[in-house]
Write a structure and sequence with these properties.
By secondary structure, this protein is an alpha+beta fold. The protein contains five helices and 19 strands. The strands form nine sheets. The chain has a three-stranded antiparallel sheet, with no helix packed on it. InterPro entries: PDZ-LIM_domain, Znf_LIM.
Length: 345
């Protein structure tokens, strides 16, 4: 305790600035060094670097999400003209235009008529933009902006002037064709005015027609009026034909005019513009032997207003050849004189 009291006295003397008493001085114990009093300073500031939180990756490789703690940032883009420009009107319904023009939302465009910027709605026509109020008919100046209009040779026309100046004309009534149109024979027609010029039947959309000298005919009337007629049955010939004697025939109708037998070998005999088989040709010509009923080719005997094969001209009773013998006739049959006398006196 004495040593501790002495140490405390020395510390008090030092702090008071007075020298310590020699009697009170004693060497410190070697095992207890004197404490060193350091000045008390304010703590040095510690600077730390704020780092952003590490991103958190989800387990799905196709979907990377931001950290759950990342704040949401909303970006607002403000146009420099926002305080001077009125709000754009809502887009109007698209009108039905002949050239498929559109009323589009407001945009920075130039009007093809006044060459001023377009800040509101505009119309596209002829590959140009227009104020709706400046799109006008080239003839009557009627505003076309929200109505139906037509383009013709680079000019814009209202419906009335399109009908008067550019619409096709019906070849029958000469009036303008406003809606559906039929193009045929190098002309245009109202559908109800394109009909058969013979019977008046209106051609339906799926019907065909036949033309003759610039006129349209239905098939029935065309065939009846202009198709070639068969010389045998007098009906129109539509498919296969036989041309003979300057006429046309159905193959089934080309036969002997007398017996109607077809010409098996293709050979026929013309007489007075009609075809005949050999037998009936000679019958018509009077060259059919009355005895054997066969055609006479070559030499013949003219007797009793008929022609006979020389070998067939014999007495009807005794069969003697009469080509160089006097004969007499009875009931269109020849007889030698003895047989005629014996039989008929």
């Amino acid at each position: 305790m004495d040593e501790l009291d002495q140490l405390l006295n020395e510390l008090g003397a030092i702090s008071a600035g007075a020298p310590a008493s020699p009697t009170a001085t004693s060497a410190p114990t070697p095992s207890m060094p004197a404490p060193v009093v350091a000045p008390v300073l304010p703590p040095a500031p510690i600077f730390t670097e704020a780092l952003p939180p590490a991103p958190v990756f989800s387990k799905q490789p196709s979907n990377i999400s931001p950290p759950a703690t990342a704040p949401r940032v909303d970006v607002l883009i403000v146009s420099p003209l926002a305080d001077k420009r009125p709000p754009a009107p809502a887009p109007a319904p698209r009108p039905a235009h002949a050239n498929d023009a559109d009323i589009l939302p407001a945009s920075s465009r130039t009007c093809a008529s006044c060459h001023e910027p377009i800040h509101g709605a505009y119309v596209v026509a002829l590959d140009q933009t227009w104020h709706p109020a400046h799109l006008r008919c080239s003839v009557c100046e009627k505003v076309l902006g929200t109505g139906t209009f037509f383009e013709h040779e680079g000019a814009l026309l209202c419906q009335q002037h399109h009908l008067e100046l550019a619409a096709p004309r019906c070849a029958y009534c000469s009036n303008a064709i406003e809606e559906r149109c039929v193009s045929a024979l190098g002309k245009t027609w109202h559908p109800e005015h394109f009909f058969c010029c013979h019977c008046g039947k209106v051609f339906a959309a799926t019907d065909g027609f036949l033309e003759h000298q610039g006129q349209a005919y239905c098939e029935e009337d065309y065939l009846a009026l202009f198709a070639p007629k068969c010389a045998g049955c007098v009906r129109p010939v539509l498919a296969d034909t036989v041309n003979a004697l300057d006429k046309v025939w159905h193959p089934a109708c080309f036969a002997c005019a007398e017996c109607k037998a077809p010409f098996a070998n293709g050979t026929f005999f013309p007489y007075e513009g009609m075809p005949y088989c050999e037998v009936h040709y000679h019958a018509k010509k009077g060259s059919l032997c009355p005895a054997c009923t066969k055609p006479i080719v070559g030499k013949c005997i003219n007797a009793m207003d008929k022609r006979w094969h020389p070998a067939c001209f014999v007495c009807s009773f005794c069969k003697v050849t009469l080509n160089k013998t006097p004969f007499k006739g009875h009931e269109n049959k020849p007889f030698c004189n003895p047989c005629h006398t014996r039989l008929y006196g």
